[in-house]
Amino acid sequence: MPHATQHADDTAVAVAELDTALRGGPFHVALRAAIAARGLPLQRVQHHLSRHGVKVGVTSLSYWQQGARRPQRPESLRAVRALEEILQLPEESLIRLLAEAEEGASGQRPAARSYRSLVEASGVLQRLLTDLDAAPDSGLHTLGHHERVRIGTRRELLGRESHHIVRAHKEGVDRFVAVHHGDPGCAPERMQVHALENCRVGRVRLHHDTGVLVAELLFGTRLRAGDTYLFRYGVDDGTAGVSREYVRGFGPAGGQYALQVRFDESALPTRCHRFTQHSAAAPRSSRQELPLTGPHRSVHIVEPRVRSGIVGIGWDWE
């Protein structure tokens, strides 16, 4: 029985290495140890991920476990959470190591929220969306999204309004699931979602600690593939402290996006600027100053065709 004994010894070593890596990291070592401990080739890991509704290439998985790249995009973070289940790991074990790796690599971050908080929010968001039976593919393609944000007298995020133009690429789509992520310290249980045009509010789910709120907007009709639809909704917030930026993340490339931020006349910032990020973990780029002039007390940006990543407006107070 020497071969069986050797196999048992190898398995014990692999499990011990995995336990050590999960405690101390780094992320890529823990991922490599987990895959080795389960004895799965990368093609099988990819197959299991596809059964979870997540598409990741074998090359990307190889890069991740070598430390050549880190998962950063929302779809990649979904993959990491699925890997925890597939590889029979404790919940949040890989995500925790990934957040530590990203924050250690980035040093001081200019964003109002840390990468760790964004990663935590992504996990919460996924659970809330699952609770609403929201599939990764909503069946809708965005042709246009115009968003207006209001900053109040206390320099707080008072609320926002969104006007969507969508086209269905699946049969029977009858809703849109809206996501609102309030500023740090907000109270989502005190926020209000309003259906303003061509929709009504359905189920609402929220998570206090991360400030994430999701809401169904029901169309009252079932769209056929190819149908277009226009609807408008708003979120009353005003529950957090001083706001310094507003960001919007995009998965697949889409249509036009316009963002306008309007300030109360008694609370005007000293300067405003536009910025973009490839992902929440990436450095900010494409910074462009936005003049705050005229009687309208607002600034805006227009993206003719959005790409995967993040775009936003930031501002400084005196």
> Would you tell me the overall average pLDDT?
85
Count of DSSP helices? 7
Q: Span from first to last CA? A: 76 Å
Overall, the morphology is globular
Unreliable stretches covering 5 or more consecutive residues: 1-11, 106-112
Summed up, the domain count is: 2
Strand order of the largest sheet: 4-7-2-1-9-12
How would you describe this structure to a colleague?
- The protein has seven helices and 13 strands.
- It is an alpha+beta fold and 318 residues long.
- It has two domains: 2-108, 434 Repressor (Amino-terminal Domain), CATH 1.10.260; 124-316, Immunoglobulin-like (Sandwich), CATH 2.60.40.
- The strands form three sheets. It has a six-stranded mixed sheet, with no helix packed on it. The chain has a four-stranded antiparallel sheet with strand order 8-13-10-11, with no helix packed on it.
- Helix 1 runs antiparallel to helix 2, helix 2 runs antiparallel to helix 6 (93-106) and helix 5 packs across helix 7.
- The N and C termini lie far apart (76 Å).
- The relative contact order is 0.11.
- Residues 1-11 and 106-112 have low confidence and may be disordered.
Short description:
With 318 residues, this protein is an alpha+beta fold.
How do the strands and helices of this protein lay out in sequence?
Blueprint: H1 2-24, H2 27-38, H3 42-51, H4 58-66, H5 74-86, H6 93-106, H7 115-131, E1 140-151, E2 157-168, E3 173-181, E4 192-197, E5 200-207, E6 212-223, E7 228-236, E8 245-250, E9 256-263, E10 271-277, E11 285-290, E12 298-303, E13 309-316
Parallel strand pairs: 1-9
Antiparallel strand pairs: 1-2, 2-7, 3-6, 4-7, 5-6, 8-13, 9-12, 10-11, 10-13
